[in-house]
Fold this sequence. Notes:
By secondary structure, the chain is an alpha/beta fold. The chain folds into two domains: 2-41; 54-195, D-Maltodextrin-Binding Protein, domain 2 (3-Layer(aba) Sandwich), CATH 3.40.190. It has helices at 2-13, 17-68, 82-87, 102-107, 111-117, 136-143, 179-184; strands spanning 74-77, 90-93, 121-126, 150-159, 164-171, 194-195. A six-stranded mixed beta sheet has the order 2-1-3-5-4-6, covered by helices on one side. The longest helix is centred in the first third of the chain and has 52 residues, at 17-68.
Amino acid sequence: MLLPAVYVQGCFFESSQTERKTASFWLIGVVAVALNLGVLAQLRVVTKRAELSSQLCSVPLGKWLKSVFPQGTVMAVSDVGAIPYYSDFEAIDFHPESLTDIHIAKNGFSIDYIRERDPDIFIFPSRSIYVAKFYPEHFEMALDRRFDDYRLIGVSRYDWYDDRCYWVYIRSSFPRLTDEQFENFPHGLGSVMRKYR
């Protein structure tokens, strides 16, 4: 990259009008290649982070849910994908701007609608492993008295760089976790573990 850049610079400042046009063409080419390489490098990093997140958090969390809770369990999850797929549970996409849930897509987010669906499990995305930094709509819903019958069982980090996590709540009427189930709760990326019986 450096040699073509030096050549272009020399041609641009020390040559005739025709050679300057050729040098400009090469300069644009060098800049375009450099920008493309930068974008590709950035996409590679983002892709690796997403792959690692799925391998160490979403897939294990989905499999763990399937191993612990009975078939027919309904869960509300904001990030549809690996978790519902590997749990094999019916999933309600309760992202505030959901496109996969027709009711939310057409009418907007509604606490009443989510409550009517009566999910057994809630998986909230949070921007912190220690403090509930949910979407404002999710935070309002979590504070609603109609959701007092859910308890937090654990937090699984899916992105260490931005400290993004899944906070997993289950219906209080579900039995307490056994020691083995409790130990196998996937904490995701990093060494910090937050689990609650």
